[in-house]
Structures are given as structure tokens and as C-alpha cells.
Design a protein that fits this description.
The N and C termini lie far apart (46 Å). The chain is 47% helix and 15% strand. The protein folds into two domains: 227 residues, 3-Layer(aba) Sandwich (Rossmann fold); 156 residues, Rossmann fold (3-Layer(aba) Sandwich). With 406 residues, the protein is of the alpha/beta class. The relative contact order is 0.12.
Length: 406
Amino acid sequence: MARKVLFIGLVWPEPTSSAAGTRIVQLVELFLANGDEVHFASAASKSEFSFNLPALGVKEHTIVLNHSSFDTWIAELNPNVVVFDRFMIEEQYGWRVRQYCPNCLSILDTEDLHFLRYARQQASKRNGEINLFNDVTKREIASIMRCDLSLIISLKEMEVLKSFNISEHLLYYLPFLEENINSAEHYMSFEERKDFVFIGNYLHEPNWQTLQYLKNTIWPLLSREIPQASLHIYGAYMSEKVTQMHNEKQKFIVHGRAENARHTIAKHRILLAPLKFGAGAKGKFIDAMQTGTPIATSSVGAEGMMMDLSWPGVTTDDIDTLLAQVVELYHDREKWLGAQQSGFEILHQMYARNHFEKAFMEQLEQLETELSAHRKKNFLGEIFHHHTLQSTKYLSLWIAEKNKSR
């Protein structure tokens, strides 16, 4: 049976700018393929890179943060399902959705676990231990508890959440959803490719930190080993501090935004991405696997993305090991082809869309028919709705009144 599904976005999705944009569009397409009526609302401003959702048949809505107009609008729309794009959106709109559409199924798309990334970022700054018991953790887990279902993109993140004793019936593993790839016949061969590439959205702190690590540490060492090669830097939202890194003499080439990430990656022999910290599944790695491009990364880069399968390239936290294995991979055609096939196998085993879409829709149908019982099982979440959101609710109402006085 067709549903009315509402996505509330932190921003309007930009698949060409970030993996988060790709993820949300994939979810939209999943509901559309099911025959559902899909709406997308956001209080953010659009950019020239915002995805053309109406072209898919999605109805767009501009909403206002901390304003009662949302209450009237959501009551009239009366969706069957609301998908919150990240926990901050659930904090802002969740209480309004529950108040005016109490029987609506609430889904949180975590994108990645923000508290895990934040904890690792803080540990990296201090060069100390990772502290998962931070304020972001409390906020994000509270949001997960308030929702009927939370979508988790990484197997590692499923483990982390279970370590907090969050019930499995509140969590659903739904990774990036990809079409199967079985060969590299459509892509450039080993001989046709050259050089290294790194790509990312530079508003995203892990990408900015990795870029500095490449510029200051990894590339000066690697370029001595492969002096004929260049490192090409692409990505969205490059600030001046990024573009100033461009140095042709050092063969560190900063290009700017890539029109098509996959076409860009496919020209190069290796994706070089030794991430210092982060969380979730990495969209750039999916893009690399889809184009048959081996990946050199760290343990945190590869975590949750390979199960017991072979990584398509190099994964290590030791600089000397990274350099030695990357040099070998760059020159050894057979190893390179083996890494390419490993990427195709990971896509087939872990990210093939047809492995997930039917089961996900069946899960939603079951939740819709058993929503009352499901919420009773999650009584702690109901307590959070009653108490925690009262503070969010009245802060929002206070801001609304303050805005009126202006």
C-alpha cells in the first residue's frame, strides 16, 4: 500500500558535494520505487548544486524553523512516515511531528554516528583516548530512542550502539544502496591510468584533516618513491586555505569541485585517503569501488565496510607500511587487478541494492501494523518524549515568541 512519506532535511541534498547528499537521494528513490508519495521539506536555502528532486516526482516544501506554521502544515499533510535527516533535525521537529501526527512512523537517518566522529576528532586533537561519553552522544542516542527506527549505515556503528544497550528493534542496518558491478570493462585499464586522487567535501572536518596529512606528511614521502606521479585533489566547498595548497612543482594539484566524482576517480590509479578520524561508511570509497579504483586508507577509513572480505587495496595505520604497500600496488598490475576485483566483491556482497530494498519495506510494513506495541516495548523512548523534548519544545516556543517581538 502506498504511503505519504515526508523527509525533513538539514539541507537540500547535494549528491555531487557529499556522501550525505547521495545517501538521502537513495532513500528518496527507495520510497518512490515502492510507489509512495514523497515530500521533502527543509528550512535551509538551496544552492546551485541542490539536487532536482521534482524531476523524480518529489514535492518540495520550504519550512520555517521554530515557527508554528510548521504545526498547521504537518497536520494538513498528515504523512504516514517522517524521515529525519540527522539527529539535529529530529531534535528540532520531532516533538512537533509527534504532537500533530501521533500515529506517524518516525525514522531517523543517522547518516553516520556524529558522536563517534566527534569523539575521535577530539581524541585526535588531544592525542588522547576516545571518550564516547560526551554531550553529543547523549543527544544523538536520545534522538535514536525517541524514534521508531534508526537507519545505520555501518556495521561498526551497529556494534557501537549495541554497546550502549540500545535494543536491536530500534536499529536497522541500511548501507549505501548500489547497483551491482561485475567487471571493469567500462573503465580505464591499469595501463591507461596514472597518478593518485583524493576527493571530499572540505566543510567536513575529517576530509580537511586528511588533506593536511597528505600535504605535510604522506605526499612528500610518497612522491620520492614515485617521482613521476602526481596527487590530484578534488572536492566541494574548497576554501582559500585548500586552494593555496596547490603546488605544481611538488605535483600536488588542487583542481576544485569534480563535475562527476566517479568519472574523476576513474582516471586515476589509486584513491589515496589515509583518514585520521571519522565514522560511518565513506562515499568516496563506494565511488572508487564502483569505478574499479583501488583504495589506500587507514583502519578507521575501512571499518565497517568490508566484513570478512579482502580490502580493495591498502589499509594500515603505519606510515612505513602504507608507503611500501602503496608503491607496490601502484606498480604491480596483478595486485592492482586483484584489489579491483575485491572492490567489486564488496559491492556485490554488502551494498547491492536488491539485497536490501524488499526487506526494508517489509520491515516498515510490520512496524506500521504494530506501532503501538513497538512503542510500548520502547517505553524508555516514550519517557524521553515526555521529559527531554519538553525542554526542546519550550525553547523552540520561546524562540518563536522572541521572533514575534522583533
